[in-house]
């Protein structure tokens, strides 16, 4: 099932994508899939970010190749940080690069996003996937110069528009064997890996994060980026594709 959040005639709705139509829901999907009985053609909708998270919890250093290219030492436990909810944008929207007096080096990071459904606290690893509604594509856009100069990545990761997400939440995903994850910029392949290469897998991360904070419906977890991250510039078009999940496209422009 592909759960979407759409703008229909300047009204925002949750819905389920059914081929070339969207079946609108009467309540948010975290409360159950309850049809409103109304459908609209996809052509009459605008897809929005399929999340309105209370929290965005991110993982760094979760792929060995990215750890190496960043010059980090592999961690024994997950390296967590957070992005502000205001950084979220939807498919086909624009990442706005900071003014050059703030940052001159911004990179893409293709990532698998976990959307929390039931949530909870102190979730057992064996039960972790039951707390998940589904998965989405995300770009953990990062100002590398600030990330490397600051003692914590908050500023370099947290600019407005630095968290493109979408195009939907896919609920029917098998993680067995890993999912292909790729990033193309202007049609050129930059990142090409598998989620099987994660150092810390999805059930472990959901359980681990729930030990220190209650995960609530709609929270978003970003699971880290593979190697191959490179700078972005004005006019770039980024495509992040995750096997079995979807393809997220967004643009980039100068401030």
CATH homologous superfamily heading of the largest domain: Fumarylacetoacetase-like, C-terminal domain
Distance between the termini: 37 Å
Low-confidence stretches: none
Order of helices and strands: EEEEEEHEEEEEEEHHEEEHEEE
**CATH third-level topology of the largest domain:** Fumarylacetoacetate hydrolase, domain 2
Report the principal-axis shape.
globular
Which percent bin holds the helix content? 10-25%
Helix/strand/pairing category: mainly beta
Question: Rg to the nearest angstrom?
Answer: 17 Å
Counting H and I runs of at least 4 residues, what is the number of helices?
4
Instruction: Give a count of the beta strands, DSSP E runs of length 2 or more.
Output: 19
**CATH-derived architecture of the largest domain:** Alpha-Beta Complex
Our estimate of the beta-strand percent is 35-45%
- Overall pLDDT score: 96
The largest sheet, given as strand count, sense and whether it forms a barrel, is: 12 strands, mixed
Question: How many structurally independent domains?
Answer: 2
The top-level CATH class of the largest domain is Alpha Beta
């Amino acid at each position: 099932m592909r759960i979407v959040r759409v703008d229909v005639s300047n009204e925002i709705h949750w819905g389920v994508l059914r081929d070339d139509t969207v079946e609108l829901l009467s309540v948010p999907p975290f409360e159950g899939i309850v049809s409103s009985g109304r459908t609209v053609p996809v052509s009459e909708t605008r897809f929005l970010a399929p999340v309105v998270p209370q929290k965005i919890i991110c993982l760094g250093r979760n792929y060995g190749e990215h750890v190496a290219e960043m010059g980090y030492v592999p961690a024994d436990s997950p390296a967590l940080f957070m992005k502000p909810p205001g950084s979220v944008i939807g498919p086909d929207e624009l990442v706005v690069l900071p003014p050059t007096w703030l940052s001159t080096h911004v990179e893409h990071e293709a990532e698998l996003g976990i959307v929390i459904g039931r949530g909870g606290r102190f979730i057992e690893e064996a039960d972790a996937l039951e707390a998940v509604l589904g998965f989405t594509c995300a770009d953990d856009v990062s100002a590398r110069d600030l990330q490397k100069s600051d003692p914590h990545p908050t500023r370099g990761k947290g600019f407005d528009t630095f968290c493109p997400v979408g195009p939907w939440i896919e609920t029917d995903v098998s993680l067995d064997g890993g999912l292909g994850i790729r990033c193309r910029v202007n049609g050129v392949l930059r990142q090409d890996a598998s989620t099987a290469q994660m150092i810390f897998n999805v059930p472990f991360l959901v359980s681990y994060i729930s030990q220190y904070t209650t995960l609530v419906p709609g929270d978003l977890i970003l699971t880290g980026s593979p190697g191959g991250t490179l700078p972005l510039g004005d006019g770039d078009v980024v495509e992040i594709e995750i096997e079995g999940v979807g393809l997220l496209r967004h643009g980039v422009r100068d401030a």
